[in-house]
Amino acid sequence: MKPWEEDETFLGRWLNGDVSEAEKAEFEGSEEGKSYKALVMAADTLRAPQYDADAELSKLQARLQEAPAAKVVPLYRRPVVQLLVAASVVLLVMFTFLRPRGTTVTTAFGEQELVTLPDGSQVRMHANSTLAYNPKTWEEERHLTLEGEAFFEVEKGSSFVVETEAGNVSVLGTSFNVRQRAAALEVVCYTGKVGVSVDETEEVLTPGWEVRFEKGELVRRQNLELAEEPTWLSGTTPLEDVPLGEALEELVNVYGIELEYNDQLDSLRIRTTIPHDNLDNALKLILDAVDLRYDYNTETRSLVVNGTNP
User: Fold this and answer.
1) 216 with 240, same domain?
2) Domain total for the chain?
3) What is the pLDDT along the chain (310 residues), one digit of tens a residue?
4) Which of 12, 207, 268, 296 could link 244 by a cystine bridge, Cβ 3.0 to 4.6 Å?
């Protein structure tokens, strides 16, 4: 049985970020995990209507002062009580089913998808990624949430915000790539200007610049020689000095394999580029480079990383 099937506390710990990176990768790569991620991100897109409590209280007090004294009648003699209860139920149902709904798009392992937003901006999503936004409020607030990786081409207009678990990215009109996997966030600016906000750190990127954060800390800021768009759109993913677990997760995203490894091996760093059409080569490029023993079962499509060679 999987950990989330036998441990009743697993989902709560996952929501609070209290599971290991290996458990998180395994769960979020499963069908159950993808469904839970989609639900969580869809909920983030809902916005409660604005309500001025002080103003409404003043109006109510004014009406009470103007109203004549009411005759006291026992509640059991007033059928209006039943009507009020029924009305409350109707209002609850209306709020539940008629409030604005968000749109959630999820890509499967090895799948990419093009999403056109209400203002014409385009998002090209990488494998095993989830995007959520609310089309009903898009004109007032261009705000969406992303888990995974996507390339954005944003139409000019009001502020455009991409929210991730690891930080936020904001632009007016530009093209940029956002990669958020586990506790890492990478942002690359292709055109225009991009603002990146992680906790108390603010970075502004111009074309060709990249930043990388790990667990909220800025670990890299560098200028790159870029093509017109990210290479993952044409079949290869660069892994530039990333922990082993993040590199293995990319194998899961692209090839849809099962993964088992010890997250203590994350001290190993990977610097390579993996293809999307040859798993054997991708395995060698990642695991042989750091001299790790591994077994891959072609029938079950499962990879077990055993450790370093003696």
Assistant:
1) no
2) 2
3) 677 677 767 677 767 677 777 777 777 777 777 776 766 665 555 444 444 545 555 655 565 455 454 444 343 334 444 444 444 444 444 444 444 458 999 999 999 999 999 999 999 999 999 999 999 999 999 999 999 999 999 999 999 999 999 999 999 889 999 999 988 999 999 999 999 999 999 999 999 999 999 999 999 999 998 888 999 999 999 999 999 999 999 999 999 999 998 888 888 999 999 999 999 999 999 999 889 999 999 999 999 998 765 5
4) 268
The domain spanning residue 199 has which CATH number?
2.60.120.1440
Domain that includes residue 107, residue range? 101-231
Give the N- to C-terminal CA distance of the chain in Å, as an integer: 32
186 within a domain of the structure (yes/no): yes
Same domain, residue pair 282 and 219 = no
On whether both 177 and 162 belong to a single domain, the answer is yes
Residues 174 and 251 in one domain: no
- Point out the domain boundary residue: 196, 231, 266: 231
Q: Which of 199, 231, 263 corresponds to the end of one domain?
A: 231
